[in-house]
Design brief:
single chain; 144 residues; TATA-Binding Protein; 6-stranded antiparallel beta sheet; 6 strands
Length: 144
């Protein structure tokens, strides 16, 4: 693994519940736009983008800006599901961008955590690739 990728990965915090977290000074919608573009550049398919704050307003609730990007690579995901269909509960991948205390935070599930949860064996290369796409896309999106 390259030194640059290791440096990028060290900017993320792994939480106790299997999610990575990183902060940004950029607005939620800008970060979401940039992440979406980075994912598309990595040949990912964007299945959906949900603006939860906008949805909350429709029912009369106010919440902090919160967006969810649902994305994946159907070929890779299908191969993983063929190995263990239960991984479909965690696919496609998701990235959450939210505002907490006037700061933007980006969260995503640790691919290693997901692989362990579904007892995927022999898929280290695919899991590592997914992790690299996630950290690189997010890091590039929030770089100023």
């Amino acid at each position: 693994m390259s030194h640059q990728l290791e440096s990028i990965k060290s900017a993320f915090t792994l939480t106790s519940n299997g999610m990575y977290k990183i902060s940004s000074s950029l607005a939620v919608n800008l970060v979401a736009d940039r992440i979406e573009q980075e994912l598309l550049a990595q040949d990912m398919v964007i299945f959906n983008r949900i603006d939860h704050a906008k949805g909350a307003l429709k029912i009369g609730l106010v919440m902090a800006p919160t967006e969810l990007i649902i994305f994946g690579n159907p070929k890779m995901g299908s191969l993983l599901m063929r190995d263990n269909p239960t991984i479909a509960i965690d696919l496609p991948q998701k990235i959450l961008i939210t505002e907490e205390e006037s700061k933007t935070y980006i969260y995503f599930n640790d691919p290693q955590f997901i692989a362990k949860r579904h007892a995927l064996m022999g898929e280290e290369k695919a899991i590592t690739h997914i992790h690299q796409v996630l950290v690189t896309s997010i890091y590039n999106a929030i770089a100023q």
